[in-house]
Amino acid sequence: MHIEITDERSDDGAIGQYDLLVDGEDAGEITWSMRSGRRVISHTGVRHQLRGHGLAAELMKRAMDDARAEGVQVLPVCSYAVAFLRGTDAYDDVVAG
């Protein structure tokens, strides 16, 4: 299984999306927007037939690693993002308090 994650953003950087491709096919996404200087993750989704393979976690890792590199705090509001971040302390420095 070949996995690729791409990053798309509006010109002003106010909204964005990470797209997950598996073997060249659309497989999932994370959507986010900027609010009060924080990146708000509002949706994480993986196609039903691909769930259970850790793909949503790969999306979250990419989103959190990018936020850290950009010096942006993340506010998770979608249920998956909240659960993912509760399950690890690896991104405590990036999660908005």
Q: Biggest β-sheet, characterized?
A: 5 strands, mixed
Low-confidence stretches: none
Cα-based radius of gyration, to the nearest Å = 13 Å
Strand content: 35-45%
Helix content: 10-25%
Q: Which strands sit side by side, in order, in the main sheet?
A: 1-2-3-4-5
End-to-end distance, in Å?
Answer: 36 Å
Question: Can you count the beta strands?
Answer: 5
Overall pLDDT metric: 96
H and E order: EEEEHEH
**Number of helical elements:** 2
Secondary structure category: alpha+beta
**Anisotropy-based shape:** globular
Task: Summarize this entry quickly.
With 97 residues, the chain is α+β, with helices and mostly antiparallel strands.
List keywords for this structure.
97 residues; alpha+beta
Written overview of the protein:
The chain is of the alpha+beta class and 97 residues long. It contains two helices and five strands; from the N terminus they run E-E-E-E-H-E-H. The protein has helices at 55-70, 79-86; strands at 3-9, 15-22, 25-35, 38-46, 73-76. A five-stranded mixed beta sheet has the order 1-2-3-4-5. Strand 1 (3-9) and strand 2 form a beta hairpin. The longest helix has 16 residues, at 55-70. The chain is globular, with a radius of gyration of 13 Å.
